[in-house]
Amino acid sequence: MAGSPVATVVPPLAQSVQEMSMNGNEPPPQYFLKENSIQPMDSFLPSDPIPIIDISLLSSSSSLSSKGGEEEELQKLKSALTSWGCFQAVGHGISSSFLDKVREVGKQFFALPVEEKQKYSRATDGIEGYGNEPILSENQVLDWSYRLLLRLQPVDQRKLQLWPENPNEFREVLDEYGTKVKIIMDVLFKAMAMSLNLEENSFSSQFGERAVMQTRFNFYLSCPRPDLVLGFKPHSDGSGITVLLQNKEVEGLQVFKDDKWFRVPVIPHALVVNLGDQMQIMSNGIFKSAIHRVVSNSERMRISVAMFNEPEPDKEIGPVDGLIDEKRPRLYRNVKNYAYFNFECFLKGLVPLESAKI
Ligand code: OGA
Ligand code: NI
Fold it and tell me: For residues 131 and 145, what is the distance between their CA atoms, to the nearest angstrom?
């Protein structure tokens, strides 16, 4: 993100997650959760279903092949986003074989020798590239994972030197996947606006000509202490929206709702859609930015691919006028460059969505 200083202020740990995972070593305390341990998943996580939404029913432009049911699906969308802040999207038009290909190139990259992956390493003061999460403070509880973060849009901001050339299809597949996900996101922005009886471009127009699209390949290695260590700590995404492709076999993602963690079951052909903080702001708090985490697994590794869409950093965003009235006064002030704002809040130990409140 332009102007997002990310400095690694803490020296790297003696052993990498990869080494510890391969050797079956106990994770060091920097990885332990502070508050409490993680109970065995099934004992406390009701498998209440995360809503499933058929995107093909949402798009009014698909009325050529109108299947009907648009109004009903819009209501489902609204209800999913006001209560969960996330849902599983089916009918999105991306073939299962292409989704497999996206998973496969990620897996192949991750399976490369460390030296090969390190050609694409994140710079100590950067956010893009391959590596562990940036370590910003001594107290940070560390995630048992690696990431590969890349910016896809604006296209002239791509740092191609960080885009893997091995496997050789990687760049092409990522580029194509980005284009396909963008189409889905555009349908969703319109549908979200329509579900709230707004003009269909009420959200999309806030993203600007040079909206940002980034991807993060997450690699979760097996971890000998899934009771103490998370793959990804609880967070909400700073994005507008996030589209997440889950691993086909290994579950791990959980969403927080009503003071409980809910599993997000694997549906191989579905995409998980998470609403991000910036859409919570634009919707004046009507839609929820989902708090989510990833638990670790003692036996199996897991890969996921997240696509984040964010407004142009220099553009101010704020609650849509049509969502502010006497009954629901303006909840948030206008903000810009949310990635930077998020980062500053993190350093100060503040919750960005709270700090953005009026
Ligand atoms: C993320 C994220 C979840 C997952 O990348 O922001 O929440 O299942 N990923 O990997
Ligand atoms: Ni996330």
Answer: 9
Q: What is the DSSP string of 43-65?
A: HH---PPPPEEEGGGT-GGGGGG
List the alpha helices (DSSP H) in the chain. 17-23, 41-44, 70-83, 96-110, 114-117, 170-195, 277-282, 338-348, 352-355
Nearest atom in ligand 1 to the alpha carbon of residue 252 is 8
- Say which residue the tokens 């969502």 belong to: 323
Report d(CA 330, CA 308) in Å as an integer.
26
For residue 43, the model assigns a pLDDT of 43
Select from 53, 41, 80 the least CA-distant residue to 262: 41
For the cut 90, the answer to whether the pLDDT of residue 69 exceeds it is: no
Mean pLDDT of 340-358: 91
Q: Using a 6 Å cutoff on CB, does residue 263 contact ligand 1?
A: no
The pick from 216, 218, 293, 346 for probing ligand 1's pocket by mutation, whose C-beta has the most ligand atoms within 8 angstroms, reads 218
Three-point CA angle 233, 237, 240, nearest 5°: 175
What integer pLDDT is reported at residue 46 of this predicted model? 56
